[in-house]
Amino acid sequence: MSNISFTDLTAHQKVIGDKITDAVNIVIKNGRYIMGPQVAQFENDLREFSGAKHAISCANGTDALLLILMAYGIKPGDVIFVPSFTFAATAEVVAMLGAVPFFVDVDSATYNISCRSLEDAIGRAKELNLPVRGVIAVDLFGRPAPYRELQNICDEENLILIADAAQSFGSVYEGRPVGTLAKTTAVSFFPAKPLGCYGDGGAVLTMDDGLAAAMRSIRVHGQGAHKYDNIRLGMNSRLDTIQAAVLIEKLKIFESELAQRQNVAAYYDAHLSGACVKPGISGGFRSSWAQYTVVLDGIDRDALMKKLSEKSIPTMIYYLKPLHLQPAYDHCPRAAARLENSEYLSSHVVSLPMHPYLLEEHLHAICQTVNQVCADLVRAAVGGGGCR
Ligand SMILES: *Cc1c(COP(=O)(O)O)cnc(C)c1O
Questions:
Q1: I need a labelling partner for 292 at 20 to 30 A (CA). Which of 109, 183, 271, 367 fits?
Q2: What distance in angstroms lies between residue 368's CA and the mean position of ligand 1's atoms?
Q3: What separation in Å is there between the alpha carbon of 92 and the centre of ligand 1?
Q4: Band of pLDDT at residue 384, cut at 50, 70 and 90
């Protein structure tokens, strides 16, 4: 059996490698390395794929979030509610503008922002007379956040709702695709994300004409009608033409890759034993399965990962520490003294290999090995020696 990789960034080249090489060569020959025609074409393809009214490509997913916050005019001191169990960029962009990331706990089953904890956080922030402005919902590991409930809370409280879909491009929630679930959506094309390019890349998807125009301007130094007009503070965050050329080709096979990711998740769901708490594969959503992450209850995570590694099965922990406990953010306000689910998940989750090109023989070996090692560890914990 060939080696099992946790995520395989080159396997698609067996399918479209030549097409990507040709597309990149065209860019190299044409010399339009910045804002070449492939950038506009890719933005067009993104709009068609997602159903969003506008797609604005940019340099990475972190900048996509920053473009959104800047277009909304988020100011120093403004409060933006963010989940604690996420990648650092979600809170980082808020802090970079001098605004306040206010940490909210997540739901223990979906790993996404908890509406109940959000309501607690809003209550606390109001008691402190803080200027509450918005919420960044994260579609963690690909699973869409509960947008219907979140939109209701945001409408009631007059808050902006922003989707951090860095991990969930291609996901669907209650029949609606990512890109249409909030007024603004940030996407990442970092190589390991479901739709990855050959370097850094990102995009904002939005339904709003005014915000779209502002973000197109902020992306290039706050440019006005003329290239050397600067009508607002901006930054330099364009998507390279070469990355756009790669993404145009990769988007063409993205639906079939998403289908293969569904198959992998369904295999895990059917074949992993009850020793791992599985994320579930149904319930009003389709995940892009950026990660397949299980929760271990009563099983020593380090021991499991070590045993699996010895058997050539790679695993990863996303995320080892919730953001409200990180030195960069531990002074920020939070919904409660302890964010229990975020803390519990950080010390109990493990992610299994996930990519569209995992073979059935790989999946069979992974499930058999995980089940066996879990059973051994449970037995050792109960019996103390491995004998019944
Ligand atoms: C990857 C990621 C980002 C940032 O994307 P980059 O392209 O790496 O800047 C933001 N939020 C989440 C949840 C992510 O997983």
A1: 183
A2: 32
A3: 11
A4: low
The rounded radius of gyration (Å) of the Cα atoms in the chain is 22
Measured between alpha carbons, how far is 267 from 210 in angstroms, rounded to an integer?
44
Ligand 1 centroid to Cα of residue 203, in Å, is: 11
Which alpha helices (DSSP H) does the chain contain, by range? 13-30, 37-50, 61-71, 89-96, 115-127, 147-157, 209-219, 241-252, 254-271, 301-310, 340-348, 360-383
The stretch 128-145 carries a mean pLDDT of 98
User: What is residue 380's predicted lDDT score, i.e. its pLDDT?
Assistant: 85
Confidence tier at 388 by pLDDT (50, 70, 90): very low
Please indicate whether residue 188, judged by its CB atom, sits closer than 6 Å to ligand 1: yes
- Which of 112, 164, 168 has most ligand 1 atoms within 8 Å of CB, for mutation? 164
User: Per residue in 227-275, pLDDT tens?
Assistant: 889 999 999 999 999 999 999 999 999 999 999 999 999 999 999 999 8
Determine the pLDDT at residue 303. Answer: 97
61 CB within 6 A, ligand 1: yes
Please state, rounded to an integer, the average pLDDT across all residues of the chain.
96
Query: What does the pLDDT average to over 135-164?
Result: 98
Following DSSP, what letter does each residue of 7-67 receive, concatenated?
S-SSTTHHHHHHHHHHHHHHHHHH---BS-HHHHHHHHHHHHHH--SEEEEES-HHHHHHH
Q: Which atom of ligand 1 is nearest to the CA of 62?
A: 9
Q: What is the DSSP letter of 124?
A: H
Q: Is the peptide bond before 173 cis (omega within 30 degrees of 0)?
A: no
